[in-house]
Automatic annotation (TrEMBL):
Keywords for this protein: Membrane, Signal, Transmembrane, Transmembrane helix
InterPro entries given in the database record: Autophagy-rel_prot_27
Mode of membrane association: Single-pass membrane protein
Membrane-spanning parts: 207-231
Location in or out of the cell: Membrane
Signal peptide: 1-30
Lineage: Eukaryota, Viridiplantae, Streptophyta, Embryophyta, Tracheophyta
UniProt name for this protein: Autophagy-related protein 27
Amino acid sequence: MPAPGPRPPPPVRLLLILFAVACSCGLAGAGGGGGGSCELSVTRGGALYSFALAAPTPAHRHGVLSEDGFYKVAVNDSILWFQLCDEMVFNFDPPMCLNCEDCGGPLRCGTQCGALVSNNVGGYDVCTTIGSLSDSHLSLIDESNPQKGVVVKMFSTKCSISVSVICDSTVAQVPDKFVVSGRCDYATTFKHPSGCARSISASGSGWGWFGTLLKTILSLLGGYILIGAVYRYYFLGIHSVEAIPNLDFWIGLPQRIKTMFVPATRNHVNYNRDGLGAYVSVSH
């Protein structure tokens, strides 16, 4: 059995581990699929478009979420309630309708689903759950134009609701109407800054996935140095610059990197001029 080869020093092994972890994180985030129920990343034409509807913006600290806990749209004898990226919360004006057992029950109607509709049937307001947060999907409004916005679609047992969030960087216009298609499929539209792509990284003009990879490596490395320094300072009693873990390695790292690009051995040639004006080479 051959003898095992030399193992790299601990800091080098650490860098290799950090690089492997960062690669897995960076490549996972560079895919073309979506993240959570209100996150989506797609690649079109060499550019990465990222959406995060629940992320705060300067004018909207809850992103696309309604700060009231729900959106409400009334058309004729029907009332539609819904919330995006979260279940609905009613601190005022709760739904008052029958048949709310699968969305909070009669005492907490509307509090355990993402969308609910009330229709007047025979003089009574009857509720129907049309969307659940656990059954939701995010997609582009226009596959050929990602900057137009996204569609949030939620499903229930027999119904669904599609909410188109159109990109508008200047105004948030709440929905005031909805349409019904088929037996129980609802759709509504509104404009909001959160419907705009949060980051666009064009191929050749941005860092793309490599930038994500580099940030991940630096974050992991910084966390290692910080945790190591705190441990050595408080638990080992090292109260000087020596508290930085593997200090000698970090000091010598620039030279180590330099030697990777400069040959370790080379012939140095000096040129001396003789009295006749010719040059002769002298090797050391």
